[in-house]
């Protein structure tokens, strides 16, 4: 700027101009000395990282590797995940820096194997995988029906009906054991999650909580589980290796085939019902997401892919968070009692909470926040900045680099949270905690953050309130601690078994 202005001032400014040019050179030189390059960034050797991944159970310990990485290399380091070079960022201030530079159409990651599958089979992209304008148009539409408080409140009826069935199922199962034992609670909550998201997507029930669970439902849930296991593996394998070792890729594709088939079956059935209604001259007034998508003129291929991805997003996330919540509450009876008191105080003599009741339940919100701090469903998120190089933590990161945001590391950082491995929901009730706002962001931040957040929170609050009104939840007698493991998402390493004692 300065040299330009001086040039415009004419010849008399020449000596000054030379001086300013020299200064500009000096500043550029100093800046380039300060900003380091990707080559200068520390990190494990490619061989070492692959060794960790394949032979030290690294894929299931990826969240732990975030802590190890930060200890060894500091806030920013690089590692090669198979064919992909990724920069890890493990400091809240730096995560904020990345997210503030993400641009108008943020890209989460290449999610290469998910996108490869869609290209191979000619399927469309849903909100999780779409990019650019395609993503923006569906995001705006779904945001209206999934994030606005008034729109979300309308789902409390269908969700409560699903919670009623869950309570019934938990009663049946706990009565089958003299001690009220329910084994593998996550399996029950997978079905609850799927039934819940289906009620929001189709405004109809699909029988996941029936005494006999339909085989297609079990197969769908199994497909999600296996697909998540295979996601990291297929991404870590270079494409040419898929031909040599075809099993992971084939299994991955079979899971997606079934998930698309399952979703298409339900969508076609629901849209056919609407067509018949219309033929009979009845008024259409659906309040479910599939209806909103199809009415807004979204092409059918895109309705299929969006509904498939929403179904998938609503299962493990809800199941994991509910399982960890009850696991921690069973081990902290004083918090459980305080939470139950809060719910009963708000409910007075009513038995079914509504969306608006939650506003008066600060401890409930704090419990879920704390659970998601300790067990963030997505332990590492990512961004790819496509339009320019950015500087993060003193390093120049070239555009199109995959940047891994190490949320597990920041949310368990003792500099951010005292006793970071302890379940202390009260920390969210006082303002004294003083953690950085980006230290625990389980739903992400900004334009590409979780579109299901409000529905997920409502579902969790409604389920937890009613479970606590009906049961005292206690640990199983022989139960030791359960740790998390990574399976793309963060899940319990082994079954969680709890005793549900009817009140
Ligand atoms: C405890 C529950 C949940 C957690 C912790 C969670 C977390 C997240 C996170 C971290 C992201 C990525 C955000 C980013 O990149 O900045 C995300 C994206 C997303 N979530 Fe959730 N989620 C939950 C439940 C749900 C549910 C129930 C649904 C469906 C109703 C859902 C649908 C989605 C979708 C479609 C996206 C992609 C959004 C986009 O790219 O525009 N999530 N979620």
Automatic annotation (TrEMBL):
Q: Which GO terms describe its molecular function?
A: heme binding; iron ion binding; monooxygenase activity; oxidoreductase activity, acting on paired donors, with incorporation or reduction of molecular oxygen
UniProt GO cellular component terms = mitochondrial inner membrane
- Which residues does the annotation say bind heme? 450
- Is the Zinc-finger keyword given for this protein? no
Tell me the SUPFAM superfamilies matching this sequence: Cytochrome P450
| Annotated Pfam families | p450
Q: Which UniProt keywords apply?
A: Heme, Iron, Metal-binding, Monooxygenase, Oxidoreductase
Give the highest taxon in the source lineage: Eukaryota
Q: Which cofactor does it need?
A: heme
Which GO terms of type biological process are on file? C21-steroid hormone biosynthetic process; cellular response to peptide hormone stimulus; cholesterol metabolic process; cortisol metabolic process; glucocorticoid biosynthetic process; vitamin D metabolic process
The record's comment on protein family reads: Belongs to the cytochrome P450 family.
Q: What is this protein called?
A: 25-hydroxyvitamin D-1 alpha hydroxylase, mitochondrial
Organism taxonomic ancestry:
Eukaryota, Metazoa, Chordata, Craniata, Vertebrata
């Amino acid at each position: 700027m300065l040299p330009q202005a001086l040039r415009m001032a004419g010849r008399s400014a020449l000596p000054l101009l030379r001086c300013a040019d020299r200064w500009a050179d000096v500043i550029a030189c100093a800046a380039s000395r300060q900003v380091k390059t990707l080559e200068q960034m520390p990190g494990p050797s490619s061989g070492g990282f692959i060794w960790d991944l394949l032979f030290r159970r690294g894929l299931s310990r990826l969240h732990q590797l975030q802590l190890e990485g930060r200890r060894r290399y500091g806030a920013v380091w690089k590692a090669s995940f198979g064919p992909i070079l990724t920069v890890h960022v493990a400091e809240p201030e730096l995560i904020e820096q990345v997210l503030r530079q993400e641009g108008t159409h943020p890209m989460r990651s290449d999610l290469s194997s998910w996108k490869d599958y869609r290209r191979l089979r000619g399927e469309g992209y849903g909100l999780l995988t779409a990019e650019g304008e395609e993503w923006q148009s569906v995001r705006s539409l779904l945001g209206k029906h999934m994030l606005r408080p008034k729109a979300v409140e309308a789902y409390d009826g269908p969700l409560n009906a699903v919670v009623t069935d869950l309570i019934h199922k938990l009663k049946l199962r706990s009565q089958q054991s003299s001690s009220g034992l329910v084994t593998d609670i996550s399996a029950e909550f997978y079905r609850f999650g799927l039934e819940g998201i289906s009620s929001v997507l189709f405004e109809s029930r699909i029988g996941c909580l029936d005494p006999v669970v339909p085989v297609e439902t079990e197969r769908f849930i199994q497909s999600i589980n296996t697909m998540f296991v295979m996601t990291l593996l297929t991404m870590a394998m270079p494409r040419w290796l898929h031909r040599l070792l075809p099993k992971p890729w084939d299994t991955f594709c079979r899971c997606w085939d079934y998930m698309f088939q399952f979703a298409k079956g339900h969508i076609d059935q629901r849209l056919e019902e609407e067509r018949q209604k219309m033929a009979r001259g009845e008024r259409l007034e659906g309040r479910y997401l599939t209806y909103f998508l199809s009415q807004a003129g979204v092409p059918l291929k895109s309705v299929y892919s969006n509904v498939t991805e929403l179904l998938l997003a609503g299962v493990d996330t809800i199941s994991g968070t509910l399982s960890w919540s009850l696991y921690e509450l069973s081990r902290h009876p004083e918090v459980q009692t305080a939470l139950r008191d809060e719910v009963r105080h708000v409910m007075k003599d009513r038995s079914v909470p509504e969306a608006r009741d939650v506003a008066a339940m600060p401890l409930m919100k704090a419990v879920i926040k704390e659970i998601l701090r300790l067990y963030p469903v997505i332990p590492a998120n990512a961004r790819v900045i496509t339009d320019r190089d950015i500087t993060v933590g003193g390093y120049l990161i070239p555009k199109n680099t995959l940047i891994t945001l190490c949320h597990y590391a920041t949310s368990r950082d003792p500099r951010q949270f005292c006793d970071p491995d302890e379940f202390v929901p009260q920390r969210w009730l006082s303002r004294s905690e003083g953690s950085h706002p980006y230290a625990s962001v389980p739903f992400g931040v900004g334009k590409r953050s979780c579109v299901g957040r409000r529905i997920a929170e409502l579902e969790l609050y409604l389920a937890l309130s009613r479970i606590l009104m009906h049961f005292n939840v206690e640990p199983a007698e022989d139960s030791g601690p359960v740790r998390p493991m990574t399976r793309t998402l963060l899940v319990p390493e082994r079954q969680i078994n709890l005793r549900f004692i009817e009140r």
